């Protein structure tokens, strides 16, 4: 959160921060459960259409919540057993096997934990409060500990990816083909990403959405040694208090974006053509350091967000003028 406040203080972002949220399209909801105060991840259920899985950030417990996408009310709280005490749960994703993967991958000191964890359990067939046994996987990075908030499971291959979080740009890490409980699962850097707070694969596995505090973009997913292809900023993305989560709707026609805080809103962002695009058809690089495209990604998305905020402000001003 401190990083977000520093960004809002920067002159180049004063307009975006001050403009307030852009109007959200129909189909969003407000999380009404008072127990969910730090919704940090989001995943659309396939077993229960219209339901979204979420969880709190640090300080809660081994809980996952099923929230009704129409009313915002909690339909079930799942208590996980077979895992240790969660430290900093940041992400949730649904795999092609029907299992939910929960990423206890946060590290606010950016390297204080030698390992982090992934918890995995089958998506419950019934939506009711219950206790389920989960599998815990030990995760380490080939190039050392780091902070991360985005965990994505590819919907076709089932391979798990993690995007690390740094203000200057992070890395995209690929896990082994199959996670193992026999020892550490080593994730290796395969690409560069901007300042990321969450991510999600499209249902058909051809795109990867990455979200930051002021940026939301879709990348073409190529897989292989350099998995990230061209990107474009997603127009119509609202500016939220603390942009924390993103998931695709099950039909892939929209993205759902959420924020932390009590009574936090989850907004629907329909996917249409438009928005700033990657320069010269550039995707990502697997080289070390900041990728040149990261700055363009953030700047392009900021332009789109700023334009949306200005549009909303202009409509309000014109409306007041007509009433005067």
Write structural notes for this entry.
- The chain has 324 residues and is mostly beta strands.
- The chain has a single domain (2-323), classed as Neuraminidase.
- It has 3 helices and 21 strands.
- The protein has helices spanning 2-9, 14-19, 292-323, and strands spanning 25-30, 39-44, 51-56, 63-68, 74-81, 91-94, 99-104, 116-122, 130-133, 135-141, 148-153, 160-164, 170-174, 185-193, 198-201, 207-211, 216-221, 228-233, 243-248, 254-259, 265-270.
- The strands form 4 sheets. The protein has an 8-stranded mixed beta sheet with strand order 6-7-8-10-14-13-12-11, with no helix packed on it. The chain has a 5-stranded mixed beta sheet with strand order 2-3-4-5-9, with no helix packed on it. It has a 4-stranded antiparallel beta sheet with strand order 1-21-20-19, with no helix packed on it.
- A hairpin with a 6-residue loop joins strand 2 and strand 3 (51-56).
- The longest helix is centred in the C-terminal third of the chain and has 32 residues, at 292-323.
- Mean pLDDT is 83; it is low at 1-26, 280-293 and 299-324.
Q: Brief overview, please?
A:
With 324 residues, the chain is mainly beta. It is built from three helices and 21 strands. The protein has helices spanning 2-9, 14-19, 292-323; strands spanning 25-30, 39-44, 51-56, 63-68, 74-81, 91-94, 99-104, 116-122, 130-133, 135-141, 148-153, 160-164, 170-174, 185-193, 198-201, 207-211, 216-221, 228-233, 243-248, 254-259, 265-270.
CATH topology value: Neuraminidase
Number of helices: 3
Instruction: Quote the distance from N terminus to C terminus.
Output: 40 Å
Oligomer: single chain
**Biggest sheet, spatial arrangement of strands:** 6-7-8-10-14-13-12-11
Which value, in Å, is the CA radius of gyration? 19 Å
